[in-house]
Amino acid sequence: MITKNKKRFIAVIGASEPSAKETRVAEEVGRELARHGATLICGGLGGVMEAACKGASSEGGVTIGILPGDNCQAANPYVQIPIATGIGYARNMAVVKSAQAVIAIGGSYGTLSEIAHALQAGIPVIGLNTWSLSRDNQPDNSIILAQDPTDAVNKALNLISH
Amino acid sequence: MITKNKKRFIAVIGASEPSAKETRVAEEVGRELARHGATLICGGLGGVMEAACKGASSEGGVTIGILPGDNCQAANPYVQIPIATGIGYARNMAVVKSAQAVIAIGGSYGTLSEIAHALQAGIPVIGLNTWSLSRDNQPDNSIILAQDPTDAVNKALNLISH
Amino acid sequence: MITKNKKRFIAVIGASEPSAKETRVAEEVGRELARHGATLICGGLGGVMEAACKGASSEGGVTIGILPGDNCQAANPYVQIPIATGIGYARNMAVVKSAQAVIAIGGSYGTLSEIAHALQAGIPVIGLNTWSLSRDNQPDNSIILAQDPTDAVNKALNLISH
Amino acid sequence: MITKNKKRFIAVIGASEPSAKETRVAEEVGRELARHGATLICGGLGGVMEAACKGASSEGGVTIGILPGDNCQAANPYVQIPIATGIGYARNMAVVKSAQAVIAIGGSYGTLSEIAHALQAGIPVIGLNTWSLSRDNQPDNSIILAQDPTDAVNKALNLISH
C-alpha cells in the first residue's frame, strides 16, 4: 500500500500559529490528500502542520514530519514518521524537496522561505490565501492559486500525474 | 499498523561500497528488523543501505531513506519513503537522530561520522565488524558489539524497549 | 583593524546571472561598504556576489563567501575568506544569519529564500529592484526600499548603528 | 595582508570542556598558527575553540568561528569573524571543509564527528592526544600524530605547502 503511494508525496506548509480558518483549511487539505492515497509531508510541528496531519490521519493517510530539532518527541501527535534533522530552519528546504508538489496555506516568513526553495527547485506550489510575489515591479505568477482545499489537492495531484 | 510501529525506528549505516559479506549481513539485518515490525532508516543510497532496505522490503517492512541530494530519484529501489534533504553529508546527522538505535555494519569515514553523531546525541550504536575507538590511548567501549544480524537487532530492540 | 569592524557585517545577495545594471549596482554596493569599513558577506559564487566582492576588494574591504559546496576553490576570485559549508542551498540561511543587515539586488528564487530567512530571523533587508511581497492580498512592506547603492549602504549601516 | 594568507586556513577542533592541559595546548596552537600567518577556523564556542582563538589573537592572527546557532553573539570573545550557520551540529562539517588541514586536540564525540568528516573529505588531520581509530580490528593510521603544538602546526603547514 505504501509502495503504491510511493510516487505521490505532497508537502503542506503554513504558519505554526494560524488563524482558525487556516486551521480548518489545513485539516481539510490533509483529509483530501489521504482520500486520494497521497502521503503528507510537513515540518512536523504545530499549527497548519498539525491540522493537516490530523486531517490526513482521520482518513487513514500516512504523515511525515521533518523536524528542525534533534528530537522526534517534538513532533505533533499526528505525525507517524518523524525525521529529526537537527539543522533548524534549514529543514524547510528538505520539507519541499522531498515533495512533488507543495500546498501553501497562509503562512509567515518561514512559509515564504519554503515557497522560495520549492520554486527554486522547480517544484510546483499551490497557494491558499498565502504570499503573492512580484519582482522588480513585475508580478510573478509562479504560485498557482486554488479556491479551496479540494481545488488545491486536485491541482497538486494533477500536476504530478504526468 | 504504521502507528503501532511509531516508536521503533532503527538506523542501519555502512559503506556504499561494502564487501560481499557486509552486503549479506546488511540484508539479514533488514529482514530481522522487518520481522520485528521495526521501521528501517538509512541514508537511502547503495551498498549497505540498499541491502538493508532490500532485506526489510522482502519481509514487508517499512524503509525510509534520508538522501544527501535534492532529488528523491536517487534513492535505491527499496526505499519506500525517500527524504531529499539537499544538505549533502550533513544528512548523516539526520539519519542517526531520527532513530532510537543505530546498527553499524563495517563502513568508512562517513559511517564513522554517523557513529560519532549518534554517540554525541546519546543514541546507542550496535556494531558489526565496524569501527572501534580509543581516546587518548584509553579504549572507548561505547559501541556495543554484536555477533551477527540477529544479535544486533535483538540488542537494538532491547535497548529501546525500556 | 578587523576587530574594529567586528560588529559591522553586511550581506549582499542577488542573482548569479544578473543584468549588466545589477552587476554595476552590486559592485558599487561593495565599494561603499568597504569605504565605510564594513565587512561584506555573500554566497561566494558569481554574478552579484562576485561583483560586490570585486567592488569591496577594490577599496580594501574584507569579503567573506559562504559557499554551498565542499570546496573553497569554487569561490569567486575576490572572496578573501571562503567558508565551505557542504550543505547546498541551505547555506542561504547562513549567509543572512551571519549579517546584521542584508542588501538584496534583483535576484531570483534563491534570493527570495534569503530574504525570507532574514525577515524570519528579524534581520533587516534593504532592497534594490528586488522582490516585493504581499500576503493574503495585503502588501508586506518589510523590505526597505533604497534608491541606489549609496542609499542602500547608508540605510543598512544606520539600521545597525543603534 | 589577509589576501596573502588566503590559502592557509587551519581548523582547530576539540572539546568545549577541555582539561587544563588541553586548554594550554590549544592556546599555544593558536599562537603558533598566528606566528606563521595562518588563519584559524574553529566552531566559535568555548573550551579548546576559545583557547585557540585567544592564542591566535594574542599574536595578531585572524580567527573565524563557525557557529551552530542563529546568533553571532554566541561566539567567544576572541572570534573576529563569526559565521552563524543555524544548522546545529551539522556545522561541524563546515568547520573542517573550510580548512586545508585540521588539528584535533583531545575532544569528545563532536570532535570525532569532525575528524570523520575531514578524513572523508580527504582533509589531513593532525592529532594531539585525541581519538585513535581501528576498523574491523585493523588500525587506521589516518590521523597524523603530533608531539606538541609546534610539531602539530609545522605538520599542518607542511602538508598544505605542496
Describe what is shown at a glance:
By secondary structure, chain A is an alpha/beta fold. Chain A has helices at residues 2-5, 20-35, 48-58, 91-97, 109-120, 149-159, and strands spanning 9-14, 39-42, 63-67, 81-84, 101-105, 125-128, 131-135, 138-140, 144-145. Chain A contains six helices and nine strands, in the order H-E-H-E-H-E-E-H-E-H-E-E-E-E-H.
User: What is the tally of helical segments of chain A?
Assistant: 6
Strand residues, percent of chain A = 15-25%
Low-confidence stretches of chain A: 1-6
Class derived from helix and strand content of chain A: alpha/beta
Secondary-structure element pattern of chain A, one letter each: HEHEHEEHEHEEEEH
What is the averaged pLDDT score of chain A?
A: 94
Shape of chain A: globular
Instruction: Give the biggest sheet of chain A.
Output: 7 strands, parallel
Q: Classify the oligomer.
A: homotetramer
Helix content class of chain A = 25-40%
Number of separate strands of chain A = 9
Radius of gyration of chain A: 14 Å
Largest interface: which pair? A-C, 26 and 26 residues
